[in-house]
Design a protein that fits this description.
globular
Length: 153
């Protein structure tokens, strides 16, 4: 039963990552502004997936009981996942700095009150990408770590 929950959380995190990337791209280039209800749903999904990911990671650390947990996690996490996660986190931090800079230097265009919400969607979608990618990396690594027979238990 635990594997089914873990797989479900992985699917939610991947779906959330893809949706947040699409929303971020679309709002960044003014292609599509997601409705508020969908925005709230994605935000709730991020919270639903990140907290269990943290709990599962801590539980896996106790179950696996290796001397160097960090080395075991990095060994179980594929290089492509580490790279993608690092790039997304760097992008999120860079975009946050850009938004802070933009707030003090320039002001957004306001079209019928939509300019303000567009900038909020940019920032939130960027943060969602970071949250969902971290959750996916933690969950996927925990799944691989539990399946790895060579880990000291």
């Amino acid at each position: 039963m635990g594997d089914v929950k873990l797989l479900l959380l992985i699917i939610i995190s991947v779906t959330g990552l893809v949706l947040s990337a699409v929303f971020h791209f679309c709002s960044l280039f003014h292609i599509y502004e997601p409705p508020r209800e969908l925005t709230i749903l994605i935000w709730i999904g991020a919270m639903v997936v990140i907290y269990p990911a943290i709990v599962i990671a801590k539980k896996t650390r106790r179950e696996v009981n290796v001397k160097d947990y960090k080395k075991a996690v990095l060994g179980a996490c594929p290089r492509w996942l580490l790279t993608i996660n690092g790039l997304i986190i760097m992008y999120v931090i860079g975009y946050l700095i850009f938004l802070i800079f933009k707030k003090y230097v320039g002001s957004p265009a306001i079209d019928s009150g939509q300019g303000v919400m567009t900038n909020i969607s940019h920032g939130f979608a960027g943060h969602w990408m970071g949250i969902y990618s971290l959750a996916f990396a933690m969950l996927y690594t925990c799944k691989r770590l539990k399946e790895t027979p060579g880990v000291n238990r």
